[in-house]
Amino acid sequence: MVSSHIIAIIDSMSAFRISRKRKATADRISNLPENVTQQILECLPLQEAARTSVLSSHWKHKWAATQQLVLDKQLFSSILKNKMETTDISLAYSKTVNDIILSHVGPIWKFVLYLPSWFPKESEFSQWIQYVCANGVKEFTVEDACRPEKYLPNSLFSCKDLTHLTLINCKFLPLPPKFQGFPCLISLRWETPSFTSDNCKQISVLETLISKCPQLRSLCLSFSMREKENLRICAPKLQELFMEGSLSHIFLEGTTVIKKLALDLFCTKFQHSKHMSDFFSTLPKVEELILKCLIWGAMKWSEFRSPRKFQKGLDRLQSLKLVAIPLHCHFSISLLLCLFMSSPPLERLYIEASQHEKVSDEQPIQIDNTCILPCLRNIQLVGISGLHCQVQLIKFLLACSPALEEMSIELNVGMGGAQEKFHFVTELLRYRRASPTAEVIIKTKTLSSVSYIFHPIWLE
After folding, report:
1. 61: which residues sit within 8 A by CB, 6+ positions away?
2. pLDDT tens-digit profile of 229-249?
3. Sign of the alpha-carbon dihedral angle for 415, 419, 425, 429
4. Distance (Å, rounded) from C-alpha 194 to C-alpha 217?
5. Backbone angles phi, psi at 84, to 5 degrees
6. Which of 346, 304, 345, 342 has the alpha carbon at shortest distance from 326?
7. CB 144 within 8 A of CB 174
């Protein structure tokens, strides 16, 4: 929206310049402060920013001094227009990027580069990175759609001012011998979906890289490793950790100030309660925890039995989100209760039941109703189908949450007819509640969406 408004302003100013009738009118846009001019240009896609060169001689080279070079998929899509042959597209893409980079003057603080799948020119890629790195880049993003993935040129590791580094489908060469780290890097994101024979080398380089970023605050990793691979993360100031993929185990060494943790991780050693307990006990300051489906998959075929409480509790955990959890399985309920018992300050709970497999109620799961969740205020349950274990969980949460303000229950689309839903609702009305002010909202998605709200007075 902002971009369209700015383009409209530029077009109108361009028309104004051409019109002789209004030649005497003051050219206000050319007298804007330099920082305002740059902010306008940075709100525009690069090609639109280049159009400002027609406004006046004052604007002719302004776009070339923009501190953001965003050569993303949107730019690539515009190059594809009216070109059918891969050779023509490749030449046009290379020429466009070369022209932009060669025309640029001044520092570059943000650089985004998308490499299409057919882009074979390793030399040009290295030259572009070298130029950008020589101009003080701080935010650096490369998305490589090529196969096999390209190795990052060594020139990248000379960028001492980097604060944000995003690498999608890129691979690491061994770090240069003189590499001292990224002293200013606060955010690192690395995604590689491929499964290769040099995973061990990539893990080693990644571990070393992380350990050489003393200011690192946010780390996002997405990969597919062999089950025998371990990952050690040493980042004393790390506050946000997001991981998805598969590996054997993850070790946090001196990384004790994490506040937000999201795991969609098939970690084979999590099949043993001791390893999981040891891992969560290293997170004394985590405030928000997200566990997704691969965590449960790692425990599915094991005899996992969670301890009643972790060795060191999650004494600051306020928000817990569990996605695709198999509520019919003993191991998941066991871990769930352990998380409750280990997190006395928990305020917000989100649970999404697994929908990917047929479940049964052959072995009802008994839930201990003796514990108290003193701070729990908001609960969201998604994909509830009325199974006995799910009903027991709802009953437990209502009975053990004296501060509860709202519980939202979204029923599974395949739960059954209106009679089954009505039976579920009437059963729910009978459950004892620890909170006299709790509001229960039941949502059901059908062809015509319906929701029911049960105010506290109706539940007494």
Report:
1. 53, 105
2. 889 999 999 999 999 988 888
3. negative
4. 26
5. -110, -40
6. 304
7. no
**Residue bearing tokens 């995604």:** 191
- Say how far apart CA 14 and CA 53 lie, in whole Å: 10
List the structure tokens of 308.
């009643």
- Is 218 exposed, middle or buried, given 0-12, 13-18 or 19+ CB atoms closer than 10 A? middle
pLDDT for position 304: 60
What phi, psi does 88 have (nearest 5°)? -65, -40
User: What is the bridge-based pairing of β-strands 406-411 and 439-444?
Assistant: parallel
Catalogue the E-assigned strands of 169-226.
Answer: 187-192, 218-224
E strand segments, 173-314? 187-192, 218-224, 230-233, 240-247, 249-252, 260-267, 288-291
- Cα 243 to Cα 230: distance, rounded to the nearest angstrom: 13
Q: Where are the alpha helices (DSSP H) in 352-454?
A: 388-399, 418-429
The answer to whether the CB of 159 falls within 8 A of the CB of 129 is: no
How much is the CA Rg of the chain, to the nearest whole Å?
A: 28
| pLDDT tens digits for range 159-214 | 999 999 999 988 888 899 889 999 999 999 999 866 565 677 888 899 999 999 99
pTM of this structure: 0.82
271/197: higher pLDDT: 271
Instruction: Express each pLDDT in 101-156 by its tens digit.
Output: 887 778 889 999 998 877 767 788 889 999 999 988 999 999 988 777 778 889 99
Residue with tokens 């009738």: 21
Q: Confirm if 229 and 200 have CB atoms less than 8 A apart.
A: yes
Are 296 and 332 in contact by the 8 Å Cβ rule? The answer is: yes
Amino acid at 147: R
Region 263-288 average pLDDT: 85
